[in-house]
Amino acid sequence: MELITRETQAHLERVIAERLGGVTHIKDVAPLSGGAIQENWVINIKSEGGILEGIRELVLRKNSLSRIPLSRPRGEEFLLLRTAYKSNVKVPRPYFYCSDPSIVGSPFFLMEKVDGLAAGHALARQPVNENLVRELGRNLARIHAIPYESVELSFLQKLQNTHTLETIFEYRQQLDLLPDAHPILEWGLSWLERNAPGNQNIVLCHRDYRTGNLMIDGTRLSGVLDWEFAGLSAPEEDLGWFCAKCWRFGAIEREAGGLGSRRAFYGGYESETGVSIDSDIVFYWEIMAHVRWAVIALHQANRFVSGGERNLELALTAHVVPELELEIMRMTGTC
Prior knowledge:
Strand content: 15-25%
Distance between the termini: 53 Å
Shape: globular
Strand order of the largest sheet: 1-2-3-5-4
Radius of gyration: 20 Å
Helix content: 40-55%
CATH architecture of the largest domain: Alpha-Beta Complex
Order of helices and strands: HEEEHEEHHHHEEEEHHHHH
Largest sheet: 5 strands, antiparallel
Number of helices: 11
CATH superfamily of the largest domain: Aminoglycoside phosphotransferase (APH), C-terminal lobe
C-alpha cells in the first residue's frame, strides 16, 4: 500500500467504521486515472457489519496539492452529489464527507465506485449509439430539474437576470489572476458581452457535463462524475458545454460529445423537459465553453509553473489553448 502509511490506513478504517458501521479493513488503495483537478483513490475494503457488508470498491475524493479558483471545496461538492443522488440522477452513491484534514491530508468524501469507461478518447472511437446519446440528454434534463433552493444547497450563489454578464466578469477576473496577457480570450469575452442573450431561465447546472466525466458501462450511463464546478446558470450552458467542439475528442462530426448526433441529444433532453431548445442560445454558450475551458487550462498549467504541483499532465494542459483561441475566432466570425 504505497499511497498511504499504515497510520493513515488505521485512521481511515476508523472513520469509515464510525460513519458506516461495522468493522472495516482496507485491503488496497490505488490512485485513479483522470481527475486532473482533484485527487481520486480507489479503496478496496472488507467490512464486517454496517451498511457496506462484504467486499466493496469505493472512491475517495480529496483536494489536490493546489487548486484552481473556479473549483468548489469538497464539502460543497459532496452536498451537490448527495442532492443529485436523492433526485434520481445517475451518480455514484455518496456515503459521507469528512472535514478533518488530518486523516488523509485534506478534507475528503467517500462514494461508491461505478463500473464503466469514462476516457473521452476511447469513447469517441466507439460506434455511434444514439440511444445512449438520448439517455445522456434525458439525464441532463433531470439535473436541471433538481430543486436548488433547499437549505442543503444554500451555499449556491443566487444569480440575477444579468447572470451571463456576471459569468463573463468572473472569467475576466480569472484571466487577470494569470501572469500573462491573453488578448484573444479577452476578445472572446468582449464578443460574448456584446452578444449576451436576454433573460434566461436559471437552473442547477453541472457545468462540466461532458464526455470524460460520464461513466459509460457498455451501452448505458452508469454515473455522472466530478460535480466540483456545479452551480446556477442557464440550462444552455450545460448543453453548449457538452456539444462544444473542444469536448468531441477528435470525433468532430459527432456533435454531441463525440458520441453521436446533436439531434439525438436534444431529443432526449426535450422529451424529459417538454421545452424546445433554442439552438442560437446554445451556440452562444458553445463559444463561452471554449473561453471557459481556455481559462481553466491556463490555471491548471499555472499550478505546475508556480511550483504547486509537479505534474506533467497539468504542465501540458495549456497546449490546448491556441486551438481553443482559433475556434473562438472562427465561431465569432473573425477568421
